[in-house]
Structures are given as C-alpha cells and as structure tokens.
Amino acid sequence: MAKLLSCVLGPRLYKIYRERDPDRTPPGVPETPTVVTAPSSSSWDTYYQPRALEKHADSILALASVFWSISYYSSPFAAFYLYRKGYLSLSKVVPFSHYAGTLLLLLAGVACLRGLGRWTNPQYRQFITILEATHRNQSAENKRQLANYNFDFRSWPVDFHWEEPSSRKESRGGPSRRGVALLRPEPLHRGTADTFLNRVKKLPCQITSYLVAHTLGRRMLYPGSVYLLQKALMPMLLQGQARLVEECNGRRAKLLACDGNEIDTMFVDRRGTAEPQGQKLVICCEGNAGFYEVGCVSTPLEAGYSVLGWNHPGFAGSTGVPFPQNEANAMDVVVQFAIHRLGFQPQDIVIYAWSIGGFTATWAAMSYPDISAVILDASFDDLVPLALKVMPDSWRALVTRTVRQHLNLNNSEQLCRFQGPVLLIRRTKDEIITTTVPEDIMSNRGNDLLLKLLQFRYPRVMAEEGVRAVRQWLEASSQLEEASIYSRWEVEEDWCLSVLRSYQTEHGPDFPWSVGEDMSADGRRQLALFLARKHLHNFEATHCTPLPAQNFQMPWHL
C-alpha cells in the first residue's frame, strides 16, 4: 500500500537512459553515472513507456495544467469582465465554487488512476524505489543509479548547498539569505531631500513600477520563464538533455541558492581527455529564452572544454523567478559548486555568456576577480535603451524607472570592475540588441559595452581622437572595411604591444591605466584601434545563430 501511495505522489518519469560504454568515461571523474542494475531488454533503453492507464491520466492532468496556466495569465481580464457583467456576487460565486470543488475531486481521482498505472509498471516501481532510497541516503551508489533516470526535477535531491563551503560558514562576508551583493543604481533625482512628503508623492509611481515589473515586464524580459513556452519546448529539452547525458557523459545536479531557489545544472568533464583545453571549465550563461539543454553550451563542448551549464531561475528544472537578485544568487551558487565540489580553481574557470546572460557573467566577474576570463557573445551594456526601443515613447519615464528599480541589468558597470581578460563578440546582423534596425551596426549596444570598457581601462588612450577612431572602426560591417580603417591609421602592432608591456612592467596590471598620457594624438589612435580589435571580434550572423566552435577563442591578454 505504501508503494502505491508513492506511485500516486511520485514525479513524472520521462526517460531511462540507455547503457553507456564505461570505457568512454574520463578517468579520475567521480560519480559519473553508468547504468542502473536492471533487466537488459530493448524496452529499457529509450523513452519511458507508461502503461495505457498512466498515459491517458497523464494527458488529462497535463491538459488541466495548460488550462490552469492560461486561466492564470488571463485572470485579470476575466475578473474585470465578470465584475462588469455582475457575476462576482455571492449568489453566483457559491455555485461556481461547487463546480470547482467537483472538478478538483475528479482531477484527484485521475491522479489516483495514474498512480495505479504506475504501480503496475515494473520500470516505474524500480525508479520510485531508487528515488526513495536516495532521499533517505545520498550515497554515491544511490545517486549513480538515480542519474540514469530523467524525471520531474522538483523531486531530485539537492546535491550542493550554498552554505556548504567551509569558508562561507566561518566568514560573515558571504551572502545572506536575502541574497548576494548587487550594484545599486543611483537615485534618479540626485540632491533631492528624501522627506516623508516626497516618499508619499513617489508611492503611486513605485507601485506602478512594481506591478509592471512583476507582471508584463519580467515575462517580456525572460520569456523562457513562461510555463506555456516551456511546455511547447519540452520534447526538445528532453532530447537535448539525453544527448548531454548519453553522448557527453554529462552529470546533472541540483544546487540550492541562498534565496531558496533550486538551480538545475549539467556538468560535462573533459579533464581526463587528451585535449589540453579540457582542464579549463567554461560556465555558460544562457539567453532570455535559452536552456542549457539546447543553448550555448554546445559551442565550448565542441571546442573541447569542460562545461558547466545552468538554467535561469524559473527555467525548466530551476525554481523561482528571474529577477536580477535571484539571477545573481543562482550564479553565486553555480560558481561555488564549480570551485568546491567540481574541484576547479578560479584561474581555470572561464565565464561564457550569450545575450542577456551577460548580466550574470559580469556579476560573476565582478564578484570572483580571480577567474580566468570572460567571453560575452551578443551582449549589451545596459537594458534601458533596449527596453525603450520596444515600448511606446509615452512610457519612457515609467520604463526607465521600472528597469532601474527592478530589472537593472547594468552589464558595463559590473564588467568595468573586472581586471581580467575580456572578449566581446558582436553579431553584425543582430536584430535584438540594436536600437534601430539590424542593418544599422552602430546602434548595436555591444559597441557601447566596448567603449565603456576601454574608456574605463585606458582613459588617456580613449580621449576624443581615440574614441573617434574606434567609432569609425566599429562602423565597418565587413572584415575588408575593418582592415581598410586599420591600415589607414597605420597601426603598428609591435609598437602597441611594446608600449603596453612596458607600462605594465613599470606600473603593474591593475586598471585603469594612465598609458597614453604623454603620447601624440596619432599614437593614441593607434593604441585605441589596437585595443578595440583585441577586445571585440565580429561574427557575421543574426542574434540567435549558434556560435561555431572555431569562433570560440580565449580573450587576448598581455
């Protein structure tokens, strides 16, 4: 009877991974999943095949879940319509509640029938036995067997806790339960006295900004967190996860962040291979509708690196909602997991981000200054210009206030606090992070990210003539135009390198540098163009085109 109850309340099982060749497992990698002890028949090596009762009950419950999601998103409009029609009176609400209660009882009955179907399936019974054993005792053997199943991630046991590193327990400087530290925006009206009257005047605007950010704004910014989209993408996500586990020997793990959110991760270890780049770990930060199952992790994987992918809060197996604070909390526990559980030194970690993932990547670079490098692909400097692009002009003040208070993705400000190597990849046909049209390459916000980074690191070089030269170079939409501008100013790379190395030897590596202070305008132009070319590479593609492995290069450094 207890087993039947476990089947009723248990998670949905999607797939039982096929047997993998243990010889492909890199040596020295602990806890790499092999295969669960089970009858070796053809029915055990593909998607889990539910019995008819479980299959039909699952379909009914899935349909009910979709209807509930649609009702949730349309509830404000429905409530307004019902109010106007007079249907919210007590005499009409009571019968409706009876109908709702009856429907809930029917769905509970369907869930019990699904549990009965699971109970008659030996595959599911063995899975639920392993899952219960793992929750009781998270031994290496139990986790090894559980890793052979792909199921609803909410039931996966936690593998790593944000407080697990001993340094966090001994130090008071780590994150609290309220979250890690973020850079806060400056007040919109500096110098204004923050009196009680002013606070009262601002209250309606603040309430409006809060409502916009937590309803329309967050879902527009992170459409991947919308349940209906995830439901539509589920077959692709399951297929991508199976590829990572079965073909790349990926290891899935659940991380618990300081805010209580559970973060879904996938780790592929290449340290035991003959490829030297496998000693470096690339942590991938996905875009606003990207998932590690089908996202940018494929690029460093093809290039031979060890890879750690993770999903934003509210995406697929990760819980929570993707606000900046939650995003930074998630990134913090991912980096801690890489260092303290996977055993990578910060100097062997590279942060790679695509699009909106630049926020968490730059936060990690700012907060973990010893990491090796940062690569930002199709990213931007600040969210406000991009938000204003898609909203009506009459909403300008509301949009600016909402972004600054609740959705402040200040990538350039965070990146300027990182002292290590940086590479920016600009898409020449980007239709997302341009503020006009894709053909207008100068409206690409990646340009502003480069300029702000160079102006912070090399303020004397990036004087008026340096900025002008770099802007001319950024206007080039092809390699031929780039080379033409580069040769027009007769940039001598050997001379630029010698100047920079001489300054570094004499003054140290910490930015900002005062190099170019006593230099001619021509010398500053040469240095500005040289540095721009080293920090930004063009990729002739649209925003969502996957980056080829040959374009994934480590950033330049002296």
Commentary on this structure:
- The chain has about 550 residues and is an alpha/beta fold.
- About 45% of the residues lie in helices and about 10% in strands.
- The chain contains 19 helices and eleven strands.
- The chain has helices at about 1-10, 50-85, 90-120, 120-135, 140-145, 165-170, 195-220, 225-245, 300, 325-340, 360-365, 385-390, 395-405, 410-415, 445-455, 465-475, 480-490, 495-505, 520-535, and strands spanning about 15, 150, 160, 250-255, 260-270, 280-285, 305-310, 350-355, 375, 420-425, 535-540.
- The strands form two sheets. It has a nine-stranded mixed β-sheet. Strands 1-2 form a two-stranded antiparallel sheet.
- Helix 2 packs antiparallel against helix 3 and helix 10 (about 325-340) packs across helix 11.
- The model is unreliable at about 20-45 (pLDDT under 50).
- InterPro entries: AB_hydrolase_1, AB_hydrolase_fold, ABHD16_N.
- Belongs to the AB hydrolase superfamily. ABHD16 family.
